[in-house]
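Reopening this ticket.

The earlier resolution said the output was attached, but the attachment link was broken on my side. Pasting everything inline this time so it's all in one place.
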Amino acid sequence: MAKHNLLGKFRTAGSLIIVFLLIYATNRLDKHHFENVQHIMNSVYEDRIVAQHYIYQLSSLYHQKYEEILGSVTAESLKDINRQIDEYIGRFSTTTLTTKEAQVFRLLREKDEELKDLEAQLAAISDTGRSKDETGQYKQKLDMVLRSLDGLSEIQLNEGGRLRKEAQESLDRTKLFSKLELIMLVFIGIIVQVIIFYTPRRE
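Inline output:
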C-alpha cells in the first residue's frame, strides 16, 4: 500500500514537472517574440520616422541655401545654415543604415562638400558679377543633393514597410503558438488526470 502511495506521488510530481517545463518553454518563446516586436517598433521610430524628419529638415535647409545664392549671398549668411545641415547629417549618421542607404548617404555627403566649395567661390563674387553659368552649376549640384535626399526618403518608406511586415509575421507566429500552447496544455492536463487517478488493476 505504501509502495502504491509512493508511486502515485512520483507520478504526480512528474506530471507537475512536465506541466511546469511546458509552461516555462512557452513563456520563453512568447518573451522572444515580444522582444522581437519591441525591437522592430523601436527601429521603426528611431531609424525610420526620426530619420525621415532629418531628411525633411535637410531638404528645407538646402532650399534656403539656394534662395541665398539667388540673392545677396555671403559666407556669413550661409554659415548658420551649413551648421544646421552638418548637425542633421551628423544625427542621421547615428541611425541604423542599410547597405543601400549607406551608399546614398555617402554620396550625399560628397555632394554636400562640393556644394560648400562652390558656395565659397560664389560668395567671393559680387551679385552683379555672378554669371548664370555659375548659379546654374550650383543648381545642378544642389539637384544632386536633393536627389540623394529623395533616395534616402524612399528607403525610409521601404524599410518601414519591411519592418511592419516583419513585426506582423512575428505577431502571427505568437498567435499561432498561443493556440498550440492551449491545445498542448489541455492535452497535458488530460494526461495528468489519467496518471494521477488511474489505478492499475491488481490481479
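Reporter confirms the inline version is readable. The mean pLDDT is 78. The longest helix spans residues 2-70.
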